[in-house]
Amino acid sequence: MGIELSRTSERDALSVRREIFGNKLLVTTDIASEVISRAPSTMRKWAMRGSGPIQPVRADGGLLWRVSDLMKLAGETHE
Q1: What is d(CA 50, CA 56) in angstroms, rounded to the nearest whole number?
Q2: Whole-structure pTM value
Q3: In which residue ranges of the chain is pLDDT below 70?
Q4: What is the rounded distance in angstroms from the CA atom of residue 35 to the CA atom of residue 47?
Q5: Would 2 be classed as within a structural domain?
Q6: What is the CATH number for 49?
Q7: What stretch of H or E contains 24?
Q8: Which of 26, 31, 29 lies closest to 4 in space, CA to CA?
């Protein structure tokens, strides 16, 4: 089962970046929040407090989320 993002054109317009860090696919908070149906502010709170079920990678002054963590949290497997 794939992930469909409702704001594909918006995502393209904003040039949302995906990066590879240590062979791990990472996405921005906005994309991650859509994947797991949480508000971006909730995910930022998880990062700030260290209290969420997953934690981001901090890079370039921002937060990036591991796709593998998101898939596990969403109840899907991603190899």
Answers
A1: 9
A2: 0.67
A3: 1-24, 76-79
A4: 17
A5: no
A6: 1.10.1660
A7: strand 24-28
A8: 31
Two tokens, residue 44? 């930022």
Strand order in the sheet with 19-21: 19-21, 24-28, 62-66, 57-59
Scanning the structure block, which residue is given the tokens 């994947």? 35
Q: Which of 74, 43, 73 is nearest to 58 (CA)?
A: 43
Q: Which domain holds residue 12?
A: 8-73
Supply 24's token pair: 């791990």
- Beta strand 62-66 pairing with 57-59: antiparallel
How far is Cα 53 from Cα 10, in angstroms, rounded to an integer? 28
Pairing mode, strands 62-66 and 24-28: antiparallel
User: How many domains, in total, are found in the chain?
Assistant: 1
